[in-house]
Inverse folding.
């Protein structure tokens, strides 16, 4: 491998701009737009981004500490600055007053912002969105607790009987599933323990019932309910096990099943410093799911503090 090729292979590559360390790298255009313009040194890294017309591309980055001043003299810089209307204002962050080396970010909605204030504005916008989603989640929870009495609420949770792993390290399918269904009053409506493997398989707990007949009984109960689950992914092992034993899927298929995981994440409304919305942690029991649903339904919506237009 030639020296230039080897150097290129060693360059860091960042999958997104948020992964680029602050204050270390810049594009050639960013270096040129600095308060005291600079010329790039050797290419130092790359980042996935978009070009001027929105197409995905790989952008070359340069280390700021390896850049050099342009040939412009102080007099030339002053003359260029004087020809641009509001040029001084454009170099000052409209929120905190910082005067960063790199040009602040400007949009048509508001004046120029430094990277920190731009990030804060973005987080505030995400928090406003979260507040609106929290109010919608509380409304949905109240609706679930007020479902018509001819289709009352049933909260369903599944606990699996695990069988460990194979010598190769692969997880074995569970041998049984205990399915707990409680009503809005907290009373148990059904609690079958269904076998998910052949009857002669190892690790089947005592009392596990035939999956075919047990699933039919459970389906008859659930068909009369509005069913609340945490998420469908938690039921993958149940679905696979029942299918392998020739048993029918017991949950209603007519739109009367609701996932609580997304509802809970919306109600919690947490926004990370990176602007992401973390997934909610599962309650782990049917009674705790019902308790959580009650908490969501009882939420008093806090007023949302408006901010300027979001980036």
């Amino acid at each position: 491998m030639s020296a230039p090729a080897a150097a290129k292979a060693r360059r860091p590559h960042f999958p997104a701009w948020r992964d680029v360390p602050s204050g270390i790298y810049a594009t050639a255009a960013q270096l040129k737009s600095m308060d005291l313009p600079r010329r790039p040194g050797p290419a130092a890294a790359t980042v996935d981004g978009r070009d001027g017309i929105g197409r995905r591309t790989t952008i070359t980055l340069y280390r700021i500490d390896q850049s050099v001043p342009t040939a412009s003299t102080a007099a030339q810089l002053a003359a260029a600055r004087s020809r641009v209307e509001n040029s001084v204002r454009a170099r000052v962050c409209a929120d905190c007053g910082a005067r960063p080396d790199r040009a602040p970010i400007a949009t048509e909605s508001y004046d120029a912002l430094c990277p920190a204030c731009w990030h804060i504005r973005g987080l505030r916008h995400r928090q406003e969105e979260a507040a609106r989603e929290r109010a919608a989640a509380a409304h949905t929870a109240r609706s679930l607790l007020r479902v018509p009495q001819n289709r009352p609420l049933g909260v369903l949770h599944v606990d699996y009987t695990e069988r460990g792993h194979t010598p190769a390290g692969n997880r074995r399918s569970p041998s049984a599933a205990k399915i707990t269904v409680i009503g809005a009053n907290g009373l148990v409506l059904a609690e079958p323990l269904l076998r998910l493997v052949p009857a002669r398989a190892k690790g089947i707990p005592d009392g596990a019932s035939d999956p075919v007949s047990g699933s039919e009984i459970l389906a008859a109960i659930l068909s009369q309910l509005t069913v609340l689950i945490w998420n469908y992914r938690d039921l993958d092992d149940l679905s696979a096990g029942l299918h392998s034993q020739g048993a029918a899927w017991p949950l209603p298929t007519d739109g009367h099943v609701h996932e609580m995981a997304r509802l809970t994440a919306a109600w919690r409304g947490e926004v990370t410093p990176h602007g992401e919305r973390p997934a909610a942690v599962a309650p782990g029991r049917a009674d705790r799911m019902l308790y959580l649903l009650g908490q969501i339904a009882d939420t008093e919506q806090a007023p949302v503090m408006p901010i300027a237009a979001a980036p």
